[in-house]
Amino acid sequence: MAQPGNNAVGVDNTSRRKFDREEYLERARQREQKELDRAKAKSKGPPVQRKPLKHRDYEVDLGSRLGKTQVVTPIAPLSQQAGYYCPVCECVVKDSANYLDHINGKKHQRALGMSMRVERASLEQVQQRFDVLKKRKDTGSFTEQDFDDRILKQQQEEEERKRQRRERKKEKKKEKATEEEIEVDPDVAAMMGFGGFGSSKK
Ligand SMILES: [Zn+2]
């Protein structure tokens, strides 16, 4: 009555599953290959040799944006957001202390191609450094003459600033005057007539 082949299929479905050795062996091989590839991509050849730490050759700018008002939107580029922007790592740090920590930190130095190791200084280098510091100390002591010079310079700068402010005010007034030119027109004409009179008197 019932065909043996059909019967076998029906029985197989309800009994224990059979382990297909070949299929799973193939799967294992593929997985191993994948892991190998991933490891290769991660290592990227020999380890990178980084330079030892060097000290900064520029001044850290912490105060240039102090006391300024700026509109901050979440869609603005990172460099114009609130806080200190690091162009090397393209990140924003929220305050000056953290900014200093960041630019002295491992991630930032790594991006600049430096390791955190400090070069061992030779005897000559230490002696040279002492010489440089000694010289700096000598020139650092200033006389009363220097002090007077500095005060004079500051006064001159202050005067210059005042002058510029006055000029700006004048220009603003002028702009206002040109805007109201139509109203002022008769007066200007009278003044010009007066001027003409004055010059003829000479
Ligand atoms: Zn950085």
UniProtKB/TrEMBL annotation:
Keyword terms of this UniProt record: Metal-binding, Nucleus, Zinc, Zinc-finger
Biased composition (Basic residues): 163-173
Chain ranges of the U1-type domain: 81-115
Domain of life, source organism: Eukaryota
UniProt biased composition (Basic and acidic residues): 14-40, 148-162
Keyword Cell inner membrane: no
Residue segments, region Disordered: 1-52, 145-202
GO molecular function (one): zinc ion binding
Protein name (record): U1-type domain-containing protein
Organism: Escallonia rubra
